[in-house]
Design brief:
It contains 10 helices and 10 strands. It is α/β, with parallel strands linked by helices. Strands 1, 2, 3, 4, 5, 6, 7 and 8 form an 8-stranded mixed beta sheet that branches. Strands 9-10 form a two-stranded antiparallel ribbon. Bound molecules: guanosine-5'-diphosphate (GDP) and magnesium ion.
């Protein structure tokens, strides 16, 4: 299986659900994966979100290339014209920064209600992002400090439940899932590499081999030194890694399958290094 065949199936349904929830929301918090800030973005999201205030957060920054993450923050600030922060689920010291950013983005909306003679109310916020980007962990982090379940809000939702994470912010306690599109094979490989694609949609061998090409191109020294390989002008493949790690079948043949699992795990746990796989558009 030399490509990634995953049809998220109900894309239209997912988008409709997202739109319904969005209609209740004042501020959208969109999580992207700091290792693939572009590949973890849904191209049509801008249209779906429209002019609603959006806070973009590059999550899993603890696993990513800090230098590239900084560049991507700048890039999104310029191109999305919105606030962009970085975080990781292990870092709980930035909750206040995140809350303040949400309050800032919500203020014009709430002020508008007041200007129309309505009572001010707390801002309604929702977290969205692709599968496995860290939405639940992020919500837990914000909720932990607050812990005021307020349940269903009369007139607003029946099934949806909200948590008051600040006197002025109610957070929808279930995130919105952004479907991923896998038409672009390179993005699909990167999504699979960060565990953003259902595992039965691809062969580990294929994804690990392609990931090695990307890593060899971007971080050759880290890759060679982690797997103790002294090679010049040649690609690093699973065969070489299996041999170097002594992963053998019948004591002689390199065990490609185990090597593939190992490489994916090493990458996902940032053992080889902290890497970002996407490139900035136009190399700026
Ligand atoms: N290293 C690291 N792991 C994270 C981070 N956020 C989430 N995870 C892990 O990523 C996986 C998916 O997280 P989850 O919150 O369930 O993602 P969701 O599918 O978007 O709700 C879990 O194994 C989390 O522990 C992060 O910032 N850094
Ligand atoms: Mg979740």
């Amino acid at each position: 299986m030399n490509n990634i065949n995953w049809f998220p199936g109900h894309i239209a349904k997912a988008i409709n659900e997202l739109k319904t929830k969005l209609s209740l929301i004042d501020v959208v918090v969109e999580l992207k994966d700091a290792r693939i800030p572009l590949s973890s973005s849904y191209i049509e999201l801008d249209k779906i979100i429209g002019s609603k205030p959006r806070l973009v957060i590059l999550n899993k920054a603890d696993l990513a290339d800090i230098f590239m993450v900084k560049k991507f923050v700048e890039y999104f600030r310029n191109n999305l014209d919105t606030n962009v922060l970085t975080t990781s689920s292990h870092n709980h010291s930035d909750v206040k920064t995140i809350i303040d950013a949400i309050l800032n983005l919500a203020k014009p909306q709430i002020d508008k209600l007041v200007a129309r003679g309505l009572n001010p109310r707390s801002a309604r916020v929702m977290v969205i992002g692709m599968p496995n980007v860290g939405k639940s962990s992020f919500i837990n982090k914000l909720v932990k400090k607050a812990k005021t379940k307020i349940g269903a809000k009369a007139g607003v939702t029946r099934q949806l439940s909200w948590v008051r994470i600040n006197p002025k912010i109610d957070l929808l306690d279930t995130p919105g899932i952004i479907p991923i599109k896998l038409e672009n094979q390179l993005s699909a490989i990167k999504l699979a590499s960060v565990n953003g694609v259902s595992e039965n949609a691809y062969s580990h061998e294929f994804v690990a081999s392609e990931l090695l090409k990307i890593l060899y191109d971007k971080y050759p020294n880290e890759l060679k030194s982690f797997y103790n390989l002294n090679v010049d002008n040649s690609l690093i493949d699973l065969q070489m890694i299996a041999k170097s790690r002594n992963l053998l079948v019948k004591k002689a043949e390199p065990d490609i399958e185990r090597a593939a699992f190992m490489v994916l795990n090493d990458f996902r746990n940032a053992k080889i290094g902290k890497f970002t796989l996407d490139e900035l558009p136009n190399d700026n």
